[in-house]
Amino acid sequence: MWDNHKLLGGVASVLLWVSALLLVWAGVFWLIHSPLFPVKKISIEGRMERVTPVQLRYIAEHELRGTFFTLDIDATRQAFGKLPWVKEAQVRRRWPDQLDITVSEHKALARWGENGLVSTEGQWFDAASDQSLPVLSGPAGSEAEMARALERFKAILAPAGLAPVRVGMNERRAWRIGLSNGVELELGRSDVDARLARFAQSWTTTLAALPYRIETVDLRYPNGYAVRMPDYKAPPAQ
User: Fold this and answer.
1) Which three-class secondary structure state does DSSP give residue 184?
2) Around 5, how many Cα atoms within 13 Å sit in the side-chain half-sphere?
3) What Å distances lie between residue 20 and 9, 12, 27, 71, CA to CA?
4) Fewer beta carbons under 10 A from the terminal one: N or C of the chain?
5) What kind and span of H or E run contains 5?
6) Which domains are present in the chain?
7) What's in the keyword line of the UniProt record (predicted)?
8) Comparing C-alpha atoms, which of 166, 227, 173 is closest to residue 202?
9) DSSP alpha helices (H): ranges in 64-162?
10) Could you tell me the CA-to-CA distances from 209 to 25, 179, 197, 202, 206 in Å, in that order?
11) pLDDT 10s per residue in the chain (238 long)?
């Protein structure tokens, strides 16, 4: 082998190329990780009403790590996503030293029991709000379904001048609604929208005119409903 000059020349050429490639790789690695390319500017955009500049500045100062090339985009996106009202953060590099971050916020639709909020997209998120919001309660994982139901219930009740302030669905998928006028509705598990529409029509034509306080309306009957009026006293029998 050592007498084979052609083979030795080939091996030497390969080693030379490998050495050159390793040298180039080392140079690129050093350049990428060197302090010559720091992130000097951070541009944050988006229509923000709940996320404050102080919160954004804190994330930028304490959570972002690395140079322009080595900064982890996914980790940066997740860092801004930790803020309570942030729905999504999009992050991209802009040569030579800037990060462009676009933040979008959740829009609260309702409270989820006593724990967090539900967005207009049916997503639960952990944040506090001083808004006057309806309260939803239901099985875990039903947030999106209940958000859609709340919007339907609002539309059905609006012509009667009523609005839901509490909407609950139990494990058996039976619905109960608390209205803005204090009336509680039992809707059961089936034909919920149709039953609610029947109530809205009856409220406008009949129930609102009754001279008694209505406490609950049970709509779980195929062709009617039962009304509980604590102040009502039946007339004496003749």
Assistant:
1) strand
2) 0
3) 16, 12, 10, 28
4) C
5) helix 5-33
6) 41-105 (3.10.20.310), 108-228 (3.40.50.11690)
7) Cell cycle, Cell division, Cell inner membrane, Cell membrane, Membrane, Transmembrane, Transmembrane helix
8) 227
9) 73-81, 143-157
10) 84, 17, 18, 10, 6
11) 545 555 545 555 655 555 545 544 444 444 444 455 677 888 888 888 999 888 988 888 788 877 777 788 899 899 998 899 999 999 898 888 888 989 999 999 999 998 899 999 999 999 989 999 999 999 999 999 999 999 999 999 999 999 999 999 999 999 999 999 999 999 999 999 999 999 999 999 999 999 999 999 999 998 889 999 988 776 666 5
Token pair belonging to 114 = 């006593």
Query: Concatenated DSSP letters for 26-75?
Result: HHHHHHHHSTTS---EEEEES--SSS-HHHHHHHHHHT--S-TTT--HHH
State the residue for tokens 């039953």: 195
The structure tokens listed for 101 are 């971050």
Distance separating alpha carbons of residues 185 and 199, to the nearest angstrom: 9
Do 209 and 182 form a contact (C-beta atoms < 8 A)?
no
Instruction: Note the pTM of the prediction, 2 decimals.
Output: 0.78
| Residue 76 near residue 91 (C-beta atoms within 8 A) | yes
